[in-house]
């Protein structure tokens, strides 16, 4: 198994695969109410078979080069994930997303994990535009988009029906040249002691 360290606090980013369905279900059960406040995934992953089916869907996406899912582990426990819901190398477009259970909140894990996944999509897979689609009332996720250097491109009013109510969705995005410029500026600031 391979893992990408997300800093020096022991947090790691690893691929999530169907054989990890039990661990993924346990994670979803721990965070079901919290994650479900803004994300429909807990309504999809309800038992071991649905957990396996969800991870199998992303294994098929990875095999077809059309998506990815990576888990975020903190102190050896799966506490969240980042995904490329869509990955289209022909058009150069991808859509990223995330979630965390309460034990992972407030540690910068999603920002670090999403930064790693987006960097891979841009630098390795040649993606030009990475989008982040989020409910307008999901301030934590919007804050991540901002920290990732994304710009809000659109508000899709009333576009997302969820749990009996329509929500506005925001489309945030970063383009490859913007991503590279921000990386370069960050590296330069680090070299200058900033």
Automatic annotation (TrEMBL):
<dbReference type="InterPro" id="IPR051908">
    <property type="entry name" value="Ribosomal_N-acetyltransferase"/>
</dbReference>
<dbReference type="InterPro" id="IPR016181">
    <property type="entry name" value="Acyl_CoA_acyltransferase"/>
</dbReference>
<feature type="domain" description="N-acetyltransferase">
    <location>
        <begin position="11"/>
        <end position="178"/>
    </location>
</feature>
<protein>
    <submittedName>
        <fullName>GNAT family N-acetyltransferase</fullName>
        <ecNumber>2.3.-.-</ecNumber>
    </submittedName>
</protein>
<keyword id="KW-0012">Acyltransferase</keyword>
<dbReference type="InterPro" id="IPR000182">
    <property type="entry name" value="GNAT_dom"/>
</dbReference>
<dbReference type="Pfam" id="PF13302">
    <property type="entry name" value="Acetyltransf_3"/>
</dbReference>
<dbReference type="GO" id="GO:0016746">
    <property type="term" value="F:acyltransferase activity"/>
</dbReference>
<keyword id="KW-0808">Transferase</keyword>
């Amino acid at each position: 198994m391979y893992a990408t360290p997300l800093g020096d606090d022991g947090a790691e980013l690893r691929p999530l695969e169907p054989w990890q369905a039990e661990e993924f279900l346990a994670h979803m059960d721990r965070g079901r109410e919290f994650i479900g406040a803004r994300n429909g995934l807990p309504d999809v992953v309800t038992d071991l078979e649905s957990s396996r089916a969800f991870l199998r869907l992303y294994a098929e996406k990875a095999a077809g080069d059309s998506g990815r899912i990576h888990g975020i582990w903190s102190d050896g426990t799966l506490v969240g994930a980042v995904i490329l819901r869509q990955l289209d190398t022909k058009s150069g477009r991808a859509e990223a997303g995330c979630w965390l259970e309460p034990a992972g909140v407030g540690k910068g894990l999603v920002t670090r994990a999403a930064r790693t996944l987006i960097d891979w999509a841009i630098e390795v897979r040649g993606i030009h535009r990475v989008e982040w689609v989020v409910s307008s009332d999901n301030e934590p996720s919007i804050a991540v988009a901002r920290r990732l250097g994304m710009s809000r491109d659109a508000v899709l009013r009333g576009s997302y029906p969820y749990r009996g109510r329509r929500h506005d969705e925001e489309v945030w995005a970063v383009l490859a040249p913007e991503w590279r410029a921000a990386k370069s500026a960050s590296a330069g600031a680090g070299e200058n002691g900033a």
